[in-house]
Amino acid sequence: MAPFPEEVDVFSAPHWRMKQLVGLYCDKLSKTNFSNNNDFRALLQSLYATFKEFKMHEQIENECIIGLLQQRSRTVYNVHSDNKLSEMLSLFEKGLKNVKVSRL
């Protein structure tokens, strides 16, 4: 019998999604016309939604996965406690308020 039970892989799929989102924005950044307010606003809205997803991912990790690891080992700390996601979300909100929508 193995010393530890077989675990569910909680790393690959969620982190694959985060990598997918980063790759998506590399592409979007190169295609956005920053002199067009509608393009710029659409990018900001999309980035805001993505950073909310990053924040949710972080929250799930901290509440579920890191909590379980801390129960098993005294050496795991809040790995996401010094992040900038909340600050980034706030900046996107401010940016969206300041970018005017162009009417055609």
Layout: helices, strands, pairs:
Blueprint: H1 12-31, H2 37-72, H3 85-98
Helix pairs in contact: 1-2, 2-3
Protein name: F-box/LRR-repeat protein 5
Q: How would you summarize what this structure contains?
A:
The protein has 104 residues and is mostly helical. It has helices at residues 12-31, 37-72, 85-98.
Mean of residue pLDDT values: 78
Helix content: 55-70%
Pattern of helices and strands: HHH
Number of strands: 0
The fraction of residues in strands falls at: under 5%
Radius of gyration: 19 Å
The rough form would be described as elongated
| Largest β sheet strand count, sense and barrel closure | none
Low-confidence stretches: none
Distance between the termini: 69 Å
Structural class: mainly alpha
Number of distinct helices: 3
Characteristics of this structure?
about 100 residues, 3 helices, about 65% helix, elongated, F-box/LRR-repeat protein 5, mainly alpha
Provide an overview of this structure.
Helix content is 67%, strand content 0%. The protein has 3 helices and no strands. It has helices at residues 12-31, 37-72, 85-98. It starts with 11 loop residues before the first helix and ends in a 6-residue tail after the last helix. The relative contact order is 0.12.
